[in-house]
Amino acid sequence: MRLSLISLVFVFIFTLPLPATAEPRNLELLKREIRAYVASGEYDREVAAVAKQAAAWIETRVTKRQPGERLAVVFDLDDTLWSSWPDLKVYDFGWNDATWVAWVEAARAPAIRPVQAVYQVTRQLGLEVFFLTTRTERERKATERNLSNIGCCECTALIMQPEGDTRTAVVFKTAERRRLTAEGYAIIANIGDQTSDVAGGFAERAFKLPNPFYLTE
After folding, report:
1. Distances from the Cα of 129 to the Cα of 71, 107, 123, 138, 206, angstroms
2. In angstroms, how far apart are the furthest CA atoms of the chain?
3. Which end of the chain has less Cβ packing within 10 Å, N or C?
4. In the CATH scheme, what is the homologous superfamily, with its name and number, of domain 28-208?
5. First to last CA, the chain
6. What is the pTM of this model?
């Protein structure tokens, strides 16, 4: 009888619900989910869907162009016009200054084809193209090589963050779009993979691509 009571106590204790904790999801499980998201093709499909919406809007907006309007489209670069997935995969989503510099200097980031197609549509329609990136001025030559390598070197300007500029991405990019607007450009589409790329206004439409790989604020 005593053994039965002890057994019942243990059963009761070990079937009690565990207390709630603030433990985040396991990092390795999240990495597996991201790899599966890319491998399944879902990431590519979602990118293509956003790019299709952007292209459709640009083509529609051009038909409503007013005389004298200077229509422009703003593109982010990393994981918008081209992909850093090859680098992220090799380093298991890790990052440091040395690996980043090596990646930039290699200038081998492959085009994200659906967004590259939006760029091509924009150029065919005769619109202004601005590349707006938080890459710094010291990375300009390598960035221009990468643009040339994917056939996207024609633009009105490649706007890069000045050396020593400590502004966040959202503050820097908002200020640059404000400046372009003040110079008389109508930014009809702003395309990026981070919320910081598309927040802050000064664009008629913003198109946010998926990016579960990292966060830039």
Report:
1. 9, 20, 7, 22, 15
2. 95
3. N
4. HAD superfamily/HAD-like (3.40.50.1000)
5. 64
6. 0.89
Pairing of strands 185-192, 157-161: unpaired
DSSP classification of residue 139: G
The span from the CA of 156 to the CA of 131, in Å, is 8
* Residue with tokens 């710094």, as numbered in its chain: 136
Please list the residues that pair with 128 across neighbouring strands.
Answer: 72
Q: In sequence order, which residues have a C-beta less than 8 Å from that of residue 169 and are 6 or more positions away?
A: 134, 194, 196, 197, 216, 217
CA-to-CA distance for 217 and 196, rounded, in angstroms?
5
173 is written with which tokens? 């990019």
Contact 140, 168 (CB under 8 A): no
Give per-residue pLDDT as tens, 150-181.
Answer: 999 999 999 999 999 999 999 999 999 999 99
Query: What whole-number distance in Å separates Cα of residue 126 and Cα of residue 56?
Result: 16
| Domain spans of the chain, in order of start | 28-208
125-152 pLDDT per residue, tens: 999 999 999 999 999 999 999 999 999 9
Q: Report the 10 Å Cβ neighbour count for 200.
A: 20
